[in-house]
Amino acid sequence: MVKKFDEILKEIEEDLMKMADLCIEQTENAVKAFTNGDIELAKQVRKKDNKIDLMEIEIEDKCVKAIALYHPVSGDLRELMTAIKLSSKLEKVGDNASKICRILLKSNMKGERKNELLIVMKDYLVNMLRNAMISFKNRDEKLAREVYEMDKRLDDLYEQLYRSMISKILEDPKNLTLATEIIFAAKYLERSGNIVASIGDRVVYMITGERIKEEELEERMSK
Fold this sequence. Notes:
Elements: H1 5-36, H2 39-70, H3 74-106, H4 116-138, H5 141-171, H6 176-208, H7 212-222
């Protein structure tokens, strides 16, 4: 029996929400493994990244089949195209979590890597991603725009962490390895923030047919 178009859209939406939940779990576990020096947890995160990769492929396949079978137009087509984009962006968030664990696994330094700002960045990123997916599920343009703007705060947190780590290196060169690893981990969180912000942009496009980035470009050109 061929599924109805609305049923397929609902299934794709549920798949994306599950994928986002897994990305959140991976991000939280990655930072936990990194800060605690937990090698086994880091290995689990790296292994589980394959599941996220597979979810992206399955979601894209469902979207392509829906387009081929039903020939959607306008809002329905934008929704499917957005779903494809979101699955790709979520896969990159998962990749960044895995890369944080790779830092730990390749390091010669044992023990904890505690850093308060890194935890703050992780919590902020997770909140961003949750809001991004809520905006997608509820078709909430206002919240999607808020998610897009939230990235500026995450960038500020990264800069603050970066400066503090450079200060530690200048205070004592022995801090070089620890500080460098924390900077790289924070950079992956900052990159994920950029990705999640672009999810907000895509959700606005899905709802309105317009892009936030295009609006910003037009505003700059008019000045």
